[in-house]
Amino acid sequence: MFGLFGTKSDGSQVKKLAERVANKRGQSPDRWEAIDALAKLHTAEAVAALLPRFTFYVEPSISDQDEKDAAFNGIVSTGSAAVAPIVAFLQRAESISWPVKMLERIAGPEAVVERLLELLHAMDTEYERDPQKKIQVLVELEDRRDPRIAPTVARFVSDANETVRFHAASTLLGQADAAEHRAALIARVEQEESVRVRVRILEGFAQNGWAVENASAALRSKLPAGFSLDAKGVPLKRA
Q1: What is residue 213's predicted lDDT score, i.e. its pLDDT?
Q2: How far apart are alpha carbons 63 and 65 in whole angstroms?
Q3: What distance in Å separates the CA atoms of residue 38 and residue 90, rounded to the nearest whole number?
């Protein structure tokens, strides 16, 4: 065992195991052996070597899931030493679901929110060919409650992408301090061409009992079918 994982050979051995883990076309038993060996090391380097296993899928699906579960458990069992490589992976990964799960298990929900907001801070609201990662981050934040979320998410209500605007509105409306952004949300309704985004914002106002003060003609003209404002200006939706 010292010859395999001793200090002189650690780097080269981890590199060899990492190559086997990341080999999509390799044999499943070979990946399994490499995953198992890396999982027992409990080092940041071993975690970094395990993470690429979450970037591809193999048949059969049960083998794919089993390999990923083994890699996941090995990473999580590493504890705090795994955080830095997970965060680095989160920043470059196309899909954020696995690294978010790992980070939540190790560092807790507040750390997850912090890292997701860091990703959003680096994004803008201009047109981009593939906004999927931005959408994933917003979807992940929708069910989370944290005072740091609303100030960061608010600008994405005016994003160039309709799906981003929809999930940004959903995320914002779920926060305890969403009321601070009511004026911006109403302005979005007045400008918004997407019916589902307008519906989502007005449903949020209706659920929270928020009135639209001094509703403009522009806003009234943008009320989707089935919506009206009551005497106090609170949106109503016919059943």
Answers
A1: 84
A2: 5
A3: 20
**Domain 8-184 belongs to what architecture?**
Alpha Horseshoe (1.25)
pLDDT at 8: 44
Contacts of 69 (CB under 8 A, 6+ apart): none
pLDDT at residue number 112 = 98
The b-or-e profile of 206-219 (16+ CB within 10 A means b, else e) is: beeebbbeebeeeb
List pLDDT tens digits, range 10-34.
789 999 999 999 999 999 999 999 9
The tokens of 154 are what? Answer: 């608010």
Residue 235's φ and ψ, nearest 5 degrees, are: -60, 140
Quickly list H helices, 79-211: 83-92, 97-107, 109-121, 132-142, 149-153, 162-173, 182-191, 195-208
- The rounded mean pLDDT for the chain is 94
Q: Hey, which residues does 227 pair with through a beta bridge?
A: 237
For 128-151, letters b (16+ CB in 10 Å) and e give eeebebbbbbbebbbebebeebbe
Domain spans, the chain: 8-184
pLDDT of 1 strictly over 70? no
Rounded CA-CA distance 131/134 in Å is: 5
Q: For residue 10, give both structure tokens.
A: 């650690």
CA distance to 29, 34, 47, 71, per residue, from 23 (Å): 12, 11, 16, 14
CA angle 138, 142, 146 (to 5 degrees): 100
